[in-house]
Amino acid sequence: MLQVRGLILLIAIALVAAPSVGRADDEGVIIDVKGAKRGAYPLAIPLGVDSDGDLAKQVQQVASFDLKVAGWFKILDPAGFLADLDAEKLSIVPQKWKDVGAYGVMKYKVTSTGSKLEIDFKLYEVSKGTTASLSRTYKGSKDDLRDFVHAWCNEVVKFYTGEDGFFGSKIAFVVKKKGQSTVMAMDFDGNGVHSLTRNKSINMLPAWSPSGGQVAFTSYMRNNPDLYVVGAGGGRPKKLSTRKGMNTGASWSPDGKKLAVTLSKDGNPEIYVISASDGKVIKRITNDKAIDTGPAFSPDGSEIAFVSDREGSPQIYVVSASGGKAKKVSKNGTYNTTPTWSPKKGTRVLAYTTRDGGNFDIVTLDLDSGTMTRITQDEGNNEEPSFSPNGRVVAFASTRKGGAGIYLANSDGTGKPLKVYAGSATGVDWGPAPKP
Amino acid sequence: MRPRDEDNRSLHTWAATGLALVVTLMSGGLYAQRTFKGDGAARGPALEDLEVIEASIAYKKAEPQKQPQKKKRAAEETKVEGVSRDENKKPVEEKKDEPKSKIDDDPLAKFRRDNQDEELDVGKPVDDPGVFDPDAPEGWAEETKGDPYFRTLIKQLRDGWEYPELLGAEGVPVGCMRLERDGRVSDTLFKQKSGNAELDDSVERALKTLEKTRADSPPPVPDHLLKHTTRWICFKFEV
What we know:
- The structure holds 2 protein chains of 2 kinds.
- Chain A is mainly beta.
- Chain A folds into 2 domains: about 40-160, Rossmann fold (3-Layer(aba) Sandwich); about 170-430, TolB, C-terminal domain (Neuraminidase), CATH 2.120.10.
- Chain A has 5 helices and 30 strands.
- In chain A, helix 2 (about 55-70) packs parallel to helix 5.
- Chain A is globular.
- Helix content of chain B is about 35%, strand content about 10%.
- Chain B is built from 5 helices and 3 strands.
- A 3-stranded antiparallel β-sheet of chain B has the order 2-1-3, covered by helices on one side.
- Chain B is elongated, with a radius of gyration of 43 Å.
- Chains A and B meet through strand 1 and strand 23 of A and helix 2, helix 3, helix 4, strand 2 and helix 5 of B.
């Protein structure tokens, strides 16, 4: 009996003394590791199953482009997916997606009958299992497909960031051909290019109204640079300012009731604020013997940025929207033009064109911190920036190696610009976000 | 006849005055046309110029000036390892016809140390510590603080730790690993979850990535750290 007791005791001692393999109680050291690499969110968008093949591909393409441009997401290459999509259908097996590095998975199913279309979307967060974090169903006609995908992607952005997306917004620009200049518009992703002006004259400097319902532009159709407003779908333009001399460079106030413009009715180009309904002058903003031009209303409407050569070379100035002394804000370089404000609330950030050596480039300038950020460098001429409605992306005209066109770039200077329009273009202006 | 002469004279005078007036007016008109041709205020600038003026006031020439540049990776110079060099030193021309010094006859001369080598740091770690600061108060267990082997290990771990920017950073998960004598990572486990599923996921992925990174010919654990190969090495992950 004693022997048995002794054996049990020995076994017990041996168990206590043995290293506890497989448990972390026996850790030698605990080391702090600080600072993960904070990158884009890896998102998988596999091709929809049980769907019309062509429509499913279209959904995948539009969604992938939207979310890639958004700046928050890294769209994973579908070629590397391990999941059995036919078996999964609209659900997911989380581990299969974890294994390919996905944090999120977007699933969808497109069905069409005749001209009718229905798309079911689901968004999964891999770490949260098999329950969809977001679901939406869109019903309409086949022509609505792109709009449905844009709307869904806006929901996805809102879900993750709380911000409104800009998918479905439009960009206006000018194309010159055979001595004519035409104001054009397209979806922000380059789809659906169409002309807003149909006269055979010179039309330029388009500016979207805050509602997105109208576009102001300058036209020589009556042999003087006059200001007109046309509906977002085109149609007959309405005269707004046809004063002697220049009526150019319109920028809408945030409430859409006023426009900041350049007028030279009294001899010298100056900045004025006029009524958006009848074109009457509300306030003269500048009074300087130099050329003052290219006004841009700040997002809260309290300030106006403009270009002036009052110190000898074109520079960016900011003045109160109620007038007063203008302050030069552009820092480096002897050539800074085409200022535009970031619409992001609570910020005072301008983007503008600067000449750097022999080329033109886009930079942003935080007026509060003084921080300058490069958007382009060493790639042809890059001009006339315009912010996306949420301020995260900048559109601009470029003559870079990839071919002349309109490009989109992250406004923090990261990433590689994406071309959305191929061909020479000027006067880029990004319209407001579509209404949900 | 006189009155007629008077009339003729008067007519000639009027004609001359008229001619002078016409010439004056024409000259004045021509002058005014030249002088005020470019008055854009009243007529507006030339069609082809307007957009340029509006967009950029491009007629002003400016001195080329550089804006702040994006960071570029400097081209790495290939240097021969183990050779101490003075970058500014001019090459010394070999003197010809100079008698050899006695030391050249010394068969051990090539093994003799140059006195300048006394200034060299000997035994400094050559591993790139990345952004880690061994003197930093945080981030290092006292026992392994500054050790080149651990610095490399932690750098590899951090290089493989990615966490999406748009996700919340709350929580401090603790993950552990077993380090073998040959430098491989043989096992990993989660000791403490943070309650943030995505953050925990990212840590799990980072540990797996480290395991893969060190699967092929990792640097073996040096003798003075071998005791760590028998126990779990744990990491507290703070975003």
